[in-house]
Amino acid sequence: MYQYNPSHGFSLDVDALSGICGSVSIACWIVVFSPQIIENFRRASADGLSLFFIVTWLFGDVFNIVGAVLQGVIPTMTILAVYYTFADIVLLGQCFYYRGFTLSDARPTSDEQNIADEATEESPLLSDGNNTGRSSNPPTVPEAESLPSKRSTSTLRTVLLNTTALVLVCAAGVAGWAVSMGSARSTYPHHGHDTSPISINESEGVHFDLWGQIFGYLSAALYLGSRIPQLLLNYRRKSTEGVSILFFLFACVGNLTYVLSIFAYEPQCAKLKKGYPGSQCERGEWEEDYKRYILVNTSWLIGSAGTLLLDFMIFAQFWIYRRSAK
Fold first, then answer.
1. Rounded Cα gap, residues 198 and 1, in angstroms
2. Which residue from 67, 197, 269, 300 puts its CA 20 to 30 A from 310's CA?
3. pTM
């Protein structure tokens, strides 16, 4: 996948770029649920999450497993799909534990909403008899001026922590790819910079499995639909409190690098040309193989790219509601 020359450094080809993106995607998806699970545990509440969001995502992962097995994707992706399913169950278990066994998203009652609307950071803990919501001892100017400073410090710390976590996970993904490449080179030294031997059967290209595609598209539809309940819950609450932004950051980077790993594909005829003398792509063969490959992976591309766009809408909600709360 890569070559090292002391005078030129590292030289990456298409397969190497695909491998790096795929490894970063795997690293992000391994830890994607951890921030939200920790956030729920820290708050002893899961009210920030839409129950339908988790349930729909769970069904999407189940269909993803079936589609991956039928379509014959690499075992690593199937194992990860199983891992996602168990992580979904843990997150769903938290929701049931903190909310009780209910199939509806928690909504504040009218009285609770009125109290929340009246209560601000400048409101007293105990109102006077007139219940005006005003403090008899209003905060002094220095205390009021310190609030924006504290918010700015807290926001900056959160941004730095999230950025550091994201960089470390991506670096771990790249490191994992490098280690796997080194291991493959020592296992198959006679194949130069390829990571594994290419069999004759591989020259036939990718195959199309009808049922694998059906479950793949069902999974994509469920992934796309899963974000809608969360968007609606945030809109009704006018808040993203209780939702971990790092949860969606990992999901975004994982989806983005997964899409890039799919597009960074080199047809088998080109690999054969590099690995075995006398083999090369015939006229139009490269384009035909690449189109077939993209067609087989279209459902996974839709599921990842589509949810990526919806996640950007959730990021917009984070920005809008937290800005309005200042």
1. 13
2. 67
3. 0.75
